[in-house]
Write a sequence for this structure.
């Protein structure tokens, strides 16, 4: 099976584009807000918390679709794949991932969102260059949202493999000039399903091929 045939990042890419659009709009509204001191924290925190709620739902959708794609890749029919996804991918499953410390980001999603919100609000209270700070906050936030879309894709695919009885997987790296050394080192290596190493960096799109 070729890397291009794995193809389970499509829902992830779609979600990232949607979240990027929503974030640009939300942070754009921050630039137009009235910056009375008492209002700054409330306004910024509301933007982040609203985004977290939307992201939580999108991550569920990403994981659900990725799980189905992984099952179809393993040869299951659509009806059975959807039934298994209904049982495996739940909002409780999503919240568990959001509440655990991630190996790549080194933080918990929700608590980091709160930190970002209050840190930006504090900076905006004293800065004379608010637009620059808001743009930087937007970049940091979309980076976090995008990374977790990848994380949920990977978690859902591994969950599907486990549910299907897969015991071992092979690490598949995109072999081009942009591939980092760490990913190149992992390419072609095989791992037990419960001993897959974490992704080595932000934005890693290396895939896992089930070994039958």
């Amino acid at each position: 099976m070729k890397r291009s045939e794995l193809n389970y990042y499509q829902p992830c890419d779609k979600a990232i584009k949607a979240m990027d659009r929503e974030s640009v709009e939300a942070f754009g509204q921050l630039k137009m807000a009235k910056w009375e001191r008492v209002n700054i924290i409330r306004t910024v925190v509301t933007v982040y918390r609203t985004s977290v709620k939307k992201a939580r739902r999108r991550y569920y959708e990403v994981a659900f679709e990725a799980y189905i794609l992984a099952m179809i890749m393993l040869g299951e029919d659509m009806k059975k794949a959807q039934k298994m996804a209904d049982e495996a991918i739940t909002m409780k499953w999503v919240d568990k991932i959001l509440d655990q410390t991630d190996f790549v980001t080194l933080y918990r999603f929700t608590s980091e969102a709160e930190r970002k919100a209050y840190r930006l609000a504090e900076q905006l209270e004293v800065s004379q260059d608010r637009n620059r700070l808001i743009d930087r906050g937007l970049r940091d936030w979309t980076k976090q949202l995008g990374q977790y879309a990848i994380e949920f894709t990977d978690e859902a695919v591994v969950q599907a493999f486990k549910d299907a009885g897969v015991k071992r997987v092979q690490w598949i790296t995109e072999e081009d000039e942009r591939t980092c050394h760490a990913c190149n080192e992992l390419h072609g290596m095989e791992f037990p399903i419960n001993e897959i190493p974490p992704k080595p960096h932000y934005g890693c799109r290396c895939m896992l091929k089930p070994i039958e």
